[in-house]
Amino acid sequence: MSFRAIRVTRAADRGAPNRVALVDLPDLADPPAPGDALVEVEYSSLNFKDALALTGRPGIVRVDELTAGIDLVGVVRASASDGWQPGDRVVVNGFGLGETEPGGLAERTRIDGSWGIRVPARMTSRQAAAIGTAGYTASLCVDRLAQAGLGDGAEVVVTGAAGGVGTIALLLGRAAGWRMTAVTGRPERADGLRALGAADILDRAELSSPGKPLQSARWDGAIDAVGGDILANVLAQTRPGGTVTACGNAADARLSTTVMPFILRGVTLAGINSVEPPHAVRSAAWERLDRDLDLDALDAVTEEIALTDAIEAASRFFDGGVAGRLVVDVRR
Asked: Which of 247, 289, 323, 331 sits CB 3.0–4.6 Å from 272 for a disulfide?
């Protein structure tokens, strides 16, 4: 018996494109090793990291050969892990899936049981996958801003707002009572971003060039998924005592700024680690998603594709062809 998986094979020349293919793999051993669980995967999703991996870019997959996919949602088939029983629905984000550990773009996989979060009862497996790493990361950012004391009416800016993190961040920020501003380079998405909770739309071009170390204070908080000059300008525009969460580098991993926002306004730059946070932090993020996320709004910005279409769909991330969430049904 075999199962399908998307495999990435690293090139011998580390700067050359990797090989990516949908293949058949031999079935996994049952029972699992102590602490592990075997999962029949139902859904995965495509995130920016997945797009890089599936288009052969080096740097994401860090072993010689690996099943891609940084998210998985499925049903436990067999378990040697405390807390998991056959039939339980589980979601896993991070922990090296699709980078150093076999990922979710496969019909079956083996996980360390400690990685899993139980899929909330009010969510379908498809919705949990639509949240994925992007939405879970957005929830970590919102939790961090809430811990910083942002209350009703706080002014919060979200960069990369038409992407996966931004989409969920707008929905959760609206639920928290904040006044959300969406930064995007795609003006055609403006109406959709307003429907998600954005009170204002800011053209990405206004933040994309190097700016002054301190600028007019506009934001109580920020969720940044792009880095570079955009993040530097957001920091320079944050109000005294404000907090900026940084969770991605879609535009640039470099940050050229000064100490001025930090020493003259007391701004906090909070890094968000979505790969290996403590279980309590991870659980709190999913509890917020369960409590506050508008699932009807999530469904409205979710597109579903088959596993057979995932490799081709990955290139859409680089030409503005993806808005919201892209879910992969691995069973078809």
From this structure: 247
> Nearest CA to 101 among 125, 124, 67, 133?
67
- Using the predicted structure, report yes or no on whether residue 320 has a pLDDT greater than 90: no
Cβ–Cβ under 8 Å, residues 234 and 255 = no
Q: Helices 125-147 and 164-175 meet at what angle, rounded to 10?
A: 60
Instruction: Determine contact, residues 107/25, Cβ cutoff 8 Å.
Output: no
Task: Say if strands 219-224 and 238-246 run parallel, antiparallel, or are unpaired.
Answer: parallel
Structural domains in the chain, sorted by start: 2-119+301-329 (3.90.180.10), 134-271 (3.40.50.720)
Rg of the chain on CA atoms, in Å: 20
What does DSSP assign to residue 307?
G
- Locate 154 and state its tokens: 């706080």
What DSSP letter does each residue of 140-161 carry, written as one string? Answer: HHHHHHHHTT--TT-EEEESST
